[in-house]
Design a protein that fits this description.
There is one protein chain. The protein folds into four domains: 112 residues, PAS domain (Beta-Lactamase); 125 residues, 2-Layer Sandwich (Beta-Lactamase); 170 residues, Rossmann fold; 115 residues, no CATH class. The N terminus and C terminus are likely disordered. The protein contains 25 helices and 21 strands. It is an alpha+beta fold and 648 residues long. A hairpin with a 4-residue loop joins strand 6 and strand 7.
Length: 648
C-alpha cells in the first residue's frame, strides 16, 4: 500500500478525514486537483502521483463515458454512475460507484467537481454483515427461520441435482469431493459414498486418453482454484470404476465465499457416442478426400493419355505438314503473342486456335469465338466492345462485348478479313493498348485478351488493294501459321475418314460400317476443294446411304490424277508402248506392305473384330495375319494393345 502523504489539503480537514474516497477534478482540463487518503488507498497510488494527473489515465478507453458523466454532473447539479471502471495501480480493474457534484467557485477559479468513489464489493460485504447483525438482534426465532430457509434451499438443490441429466459433483479447495449427484454416479460407476471426502482426481481423472499420467497440477478442474476462472474442456476422458474410459465435456466453475475461492462445481456429460460418430465421419471424409485426390490423379493421367492419343485436341494426322503445325503450336502456345492462321475454308483453322488456347496459361479462362463474316456492318463495334442502354435504336439494356467477355482468356477472330475498314483502327488500339470504350459510353475500360485471328483471304493482297490496314496486318501477323489443304496431305485422308466414320456411327446409331481398300483409294485420289469439312460431309452422307454395311461414297467425277509411273514415262519418252501399271514383284510387295501398314495405323494396330484392319481392307483376319507374316511386318500383340506400333 502506498505511503500516504501528510501534507494538508486546501479542501479542508473534512476532505482529509473522510472514510469515502474523494477526488477533486477540473473537468475542463481533465486534471485531478487533489485526492484524499481514502482515494489513495482505494486506487493504490501515492497522493503526489494523483495530484495534477489526468483522470482519463485511470480510465483507459473510457473517455466518452467520462465526458458524459461530468457533463451530467455539471448540468444537473449532481450525478452518479457504475459504468466507470478505473484501473488500480496493480493493473486490476475496479468496480466502483461514482457520484459527483459541483463545488462552489471562487472568482478566477475553474469549475470543479467533487468525485466520491464507493467500492461496490466493500458495500456488499457491509450489507451482508448488517444482515447478520440483524439476525443476531432478532434472536433465536430469526435464526430458526434462517435455518429453515437454508434447509429448504438445500432440499430444493438436491431435487435439482437429482433431476439433472448431466453429471454434477463438487470439490473443495483441497480437491476432495463434497457431493455427487445421481447422474454422476450412473456415468462413473462410483457411488456417492465412495467419492465424497476423497480426492476425485485420483479416482476418475488420473490418466489421459492415451495412457499417460495426468498430474493434478495440470488438471483444469483444480486450475479453477488457482485462477478463479471458469474452465471448459471437451476432449478429455473420465475413468469409470470398471476401468473403461468415457469421453466427456465438462465445465469447472469456481465457488467463492467472501471473495475467496473455496471450491468448484463440475458439470459433465458423456459424449462418447458423439465422438465416435465424429471419428467415423472424419474417417469417411478422409477416405472421400483420398478418393478425390486419387480420382484427380487418375483423371490427370487419363487427360494426358487423351491428349497424346488425340494429337493436340482433335488435330488428326501424321503427315509432315500436320507435324509442322503441331510444332508451331507447341512453340507459340506458352506465349501471349498474336497468331494469324491462314488457309482455305474447311482446313481446321479453329481447331488450331483451340489447340493454342488449351495449351496456353489462359486455358482456365474462356476461348471466345467471333465469326466476323456473320456480323452486320453496323453492329461490328457493339459486338466487339459492347454498348450502353440507349446508345442507338434498339439498345434497350447494357450489353457486354466480346473483348470484355474474353478478359483474361483468348479471343478467336474467325474470318478477320471481313472486318470493316473503319473499325480496324479501333481493333488496332485494343491490340496495342488493351483499352476500349463501349458504344455510347465515355469511360475507358482495360482488358487483357490474347487474340488469335484466322482468314481464308490473302491479307497481303487486301492491304495492297487498300481494303485492310497495313499496321493492323502486321500487328496480327506476329506468328503466322499456315493451315494446309487436304490435297497437300493425302496420307492423312484414311485416318480422317475413319475418324469421321466412327463419329457418324455414333451419331446415326447405325450398323457397323467399314471402309474398303477401294474406298480409301477413291478418297485419296479426290482433290477435296472443301477440305476436311467436305470429307466429313461425304463420310456422313455415305453412312446415311449405306446398305447392308456397305458405304456408298458419292464423289464428283473430277478426281486427282494418278501419280505418274516412272517406267511408263521413260517408255513413252523413248517412243515405246507402255504397259499400264505393270509392277515388279518387289514393287508389288512394297505396295502391299504400305497398304497394310496404313490400315494398321488407321485402326490403332487392331486386326480382328469390328473396326479392325482386316475389315478395313476387306479380307479375312487370318488372311491378313498370314500376309503380315509373309511380308515380314513385325507386330507387338496389336489385337490387345491398340496403340502398339507396327514395325517393319
Amino acid at each position: 500500500m502506498p505511503e500516504i502523504a501528510q501534507e494538508a489539503s486546501r479542501f479542508g480537514p473534512a476532505f482529509e478525514a473522510h472514510t469515502e474516497a474523494m477526488l477533486v477534478l477540473d473537468p475542463m482540463a481533465d486534471r485531478i486537483l487533489d485526492a484524499n487518503p481514502a482515494a489513495c488507498r482505494l486506487l493504490g497510488y501515492h497522493r503526489s502521483a494523483l495530484r495534477d494527473s489526468r483522470l482519463s489515465l485511470l480510465h483507459p478507453e473510457q473517455m466518452p463515458a467520462l465526458i458524459v458523466f461530468t457533463e451530467a454532473a455539471l448540468n444537473l447539479g449532481g450525478h452518479w454512475t457504475r459504468d466507470l471502471t478505473p484501473k488500480h495501480a496493480s493493473g486490476k480493474t475496479l468496480k466502483l460507484e461514482y457520484s459527483a457534484a459541483p463545488l462552489p467557485r471562487r472568482a478566477g477559479e475553474p469549475e470543479m467537481l467533487l468525485f466520491t468513489l464507493s467500492d461496490l464489493e466493500e458495500r456488499r460485504r457491509r450489507s451482508v454483515d448488517a444482515e447478520a447483525d440483524a439476525y443476531l438482534r432478532d434472536g433465536i426465532a430469526e435464526w430458526q427461520r434462517v435455518e429453515r430457509f437454508f434447509r429448504d434451499m438445500e432440499r430444493e438443490n438436491q431435487l435439482i441435482l437429482s433431476a439433472a441429466g448431466e453429471g454434477i459433483y463438487g470439490v473443495n479447495a483441497e480437491g476432495k469431493t463434497t457431493f455427487v449427484n445421481p447422474a454422476a454416479e450412473r456415468l462413473l460407476g462410483w457411488s456417492a459414498e465412495d467419492l465424497v471426502g476423497h480426492n476425485i482426481h485420483s479416482r476418475v481423472h488420473h490418466t489421459r486418453h492415451d495412457g499417460n499420467p495426468y498430474p493434478g497440477h495440470d488438471c483444469p478442474i483444480y486450475a479453477a482454484f488457482r485462477d478463479g476462472e471458469v474452465h471448459t474442456v471437451d476432449d478429455e476422458v473420465f475413468w469409470r470404476r470398471d476401468g473403461k474410459p468415457i469421453w466427456v465435456e465438462y465445465t469447472s466453475t469456481p465457488i467463492r465465499d467472501r471473495g475467496a475461492v473455496v471450491g468448484a462445481v463440475v458439470v459433465f456429460r458423456d459424449v462418447t457416442h458423439k465422438r465416435e460418430a465424429e471419428e467415423k465421419l472424419r474417417a469417411a471424409l478422409e477416405e472421400v478426400e483420398s478418393l478425390r485426390q486419387r480420382l484427380e490423379l487418375e483423371n490427370a493421367y487419363l487427360q494426358e493419355e487423351i491428349k497424346l492419343e488425340a494429337k493436340h485436341r482433335g488435330i488428326i494426322g501424321g503427315s509432315a505438314a500436320i507435324q509442322n503445325i503441331l510444332r508451331q503450336i507447341e512453340l507459340v502456345a506458352p506465349t501471349d503473342a498474336t497468331v494469324l492462321i491462314s488457309g482455305e475454308s474447311g482446313t481446321g483453322k479453329e481447331l488450331i486456335a483451340r489447340a493454342i488456347h488449351e495449351a496456353s496459361k489462359r486455358s482456365d479462362r474462356p476461348l471466345i469465338r467471333v465469326n466476323c463474316a456473320a456480323i452486320p456492318r453496323e453492329l461490328f463495334e457493339s459486338e466487339f466492345f459492347g454498348h450502353v442502354r440507349g446508345a442507338f435504336t434498339g439498345a434497350l439494356r447494357d450489353r457486354i462485348g466480346r473483348f470484355e467477355l474474353a478478359d483474361g482468356g483468348t479471343l478467336f477472330l474467325d474470318e478477320v478479313g471481313e472486318i470493316p475498314l473503319e473499325l480496324q483502327g479501333k481493333l488496332l488500339r485494343v491490340l496495342q493498348e488493351g483499352q476500349f470504350e463501349r458504344v455510347g459510353e465515355e469511360r475507358t475500360r482495360n482488358v487483357d485478351v490474347r487474340v488469335i485471328a484466322a482468314t481464308n483471304r490473302d491479307l497481303r493482297e487486301e492491304v495492297r488493294r487498300g481494303r485492310f490496314r497495313e499496321d493492323l496486318y502486321f500487328r496480327l501477323n506476329v506468328v503466322p501459321i499456315q493451315s494446309v489443304p487436304l490435297r497437300e496431305r493425302r496420307e492423312d485422308i484414311p485416318l480422317l475418314a475413319l475418324h469421321f466414320l466412327r463419329g457418324a456411327h455414333r451419331k446415326l446409331d447405325s450398323a457397323d460400317l467399314r471402309l474398303t481398300e477401294g474406298d480409301i483409294r477413291r478418297l485419296t485420289r479426290y482433290d477435296w476443294p472443301g477440305n476436311v469439312r467436305e470429307l466429313e460431309n461425304v463420310i456422313e452422307r455415305a453412312a446415311i446411304l449405306a446398305r447392308q454395311g456397305r458405304l456408298r461414297i458419292d464423289l464428283p467425277d473430277t478426281e486427282a490424277p494418278e501419280p505418274p509411273n516412272p517406267r511408263n514415262d521413260t517408255a513413252q519418252r523413248n517412243g515405246q508402248w507402255a504397259e499400264p501399271d505393270w509392277l515388279t514383284e518387289s514393287e508389288r510387295r512394297r505396295r502391299d506392305r504400305d497398304h497394310i501398314r496404313a490400315a494398321l495405323d488407321a485402326c490403332g494396330g487392331k486386326i480382328f473384330g469390328p473396326g479392325g484392319a482386316a475389315e478395313l481392307l476387306g479380307v479375312k483376319p487370318t488372311t491378313l495375319a498370314s500376309r503380315i507374316k509373309t511380308l515380314g511386318l513385325r507386330r507387338q500383340r496389336a489385337d490387345t494393345i491398340p496403340s502398339a506400333p507396327i514395325v517393319p
